Amino acid sequence: MSDKPALLNDELFQKFAMKVLTAGHEVIPERNCYRHKGFRKDIDRNTIVKIDGVPFMTEFGAVLRVKDIFPERADLCLDIDGNLVSQQEFERRYLEYLAWFDRPEGSEVELEPIPSVTMYISMTYDVFSESGSMVPIGYDARKPAETVPTQQYDPRTDKMVEIEATQKMMAEILAKMADQSERRGPGRPPKEA
Question: Which regions in the chain score pLDDT beneath 50?
Answer without folding.
Answer: 1-8
